[in-house]
Amino acid sequence: MFEIGSVAGGGSGVLDGLTAAVDELQKVDPRDAALVDTVADIAVLHAQIQRLQSVMLGMVRTCDADGGHHLAGYATTGTMLTDGLRLSPGQGQAMVHTARALHSTFEQTQQALADGQISTAHATAITRAARKLPSDVLEEAEPVLLEVAEVGSPTMVRAAVDRMAELLEPEHFDHDIEKERERRYLDVSQTKDGWWAIDGHVPHEIGARLAAALEQFAGCTDPTDLRTAKQRRADAIAEIADAATDGQTSGISTLSIVADAEHLDGTGAQWDDTGMPVGLTNFAMAVCQSRIQLVVADRSGIGWKPLAVGMLTRFATPAQRAALRIRDGRCVCRGCTRKPSRCHAHHVIDWRDGGSTDVSNLVLLCPYHHRMVHLGRAEFADDPRIPGRRIAIPSRRHRTTAA
Ligand SMILES: [Zn+2]
Ligand SMILES: [Zn+2]
Hints:
By secondary structure, this protein is an alpha+beta fold. It has 3 domains: 2-181, no CATH class; 252-313, no CATH class; 314-400, no CATH class. 49% of the residues lie in helices and 14% in strands. The chain has 17 helices and 12 strands. The strands form 5 sheets. The chain has a 4-stranded mixed beta sheet with strand order 6-5-7-8. A two-stranded antiparallel ribbon has the order 1-2. A two-stranded antiparallel ribbon has the order 3-4. A hairpin with a 2-residue loop joins strand 7 and strand 8. The radius of gyration is 31 Å and the shape is elongated. Bound molecules: zinc ion (2 copies). Residues 285, 288-289, 346-347, 370, 374 line the site of one zinc ion.
């Protein structure tokens, strides 16, 4: 029994023989055959899978032409396939495009797929010619593209289509690239809970640069780094943003925290723009060393009365940072390799407990380990090798969970 939208059932029965054949295949142990035969079997099976794909595309086309998606409760065949078969966004629509183009224009390609000579990915790459090339050359182009498909990868077929388009209509091809670029977008918006949602779709030259920047900033700090790859990428965005705005913000931050002068431990502190609670660790980090502006205020009557803004003197000066760079060399957490330019200057003794902004009371910590220290998950010890340097050691409980 299968379901797709509001349609449920076992199908017409034409696939029963196939299901039985696959059941049998699954009982076969490949280790019983000679290895050379197994290699050949992989190629045969791949060709049969492509032939099945061609059968499915034929069904997709019929379903599309006769409105089967309405029966299942969908507006288009593409959304029915994407949703019903749990495909990636756009994949269902791409299947429909391929099915339509094979039927209407690319008869030889359809036959090659039905014969198992090319894959669906090849066929999709060939049908792309319908959008990229003038319609009067398609008949001539198809056999050439098929030849490429029979010896090369789908990527090579795509490149061949692009090359033809470029040769036939260079201006049109360039126009196409520009037209495609119009689809690029990036949405960055604050959600109701005060977090930010990021969503986008960018062309290769932007995406590749972003990926390179993320790769540079989102690596593991050391073996005790417990963050997932997704979490590290999210944290990397803050570092990339800081690096991009360095030297341009002249100490004026776009983010402010308003804190009650009577509660400098951070209880009741709020983000100025949303009024959301800051949390004790975020507050401690902002107070310690931060690009986040702190407004200490007296909560009197209905609002806040600012008493002091910034407390910039607590932040390490360029001369102090240079001294830290020479003494600490990198994030002082054991095993971490983050460079000084990517570190915060952390106050070992909190300024609220009388700690000074003095090189002897400061250490370099990368943002990740800075947070660990403020969460009490790492402790300081003297570096046995370098006098005057401290090292931070992740506490045992958090080291063992890293394995
Ligand atoms: Zn700190
Ligand atoms: Zn670190």
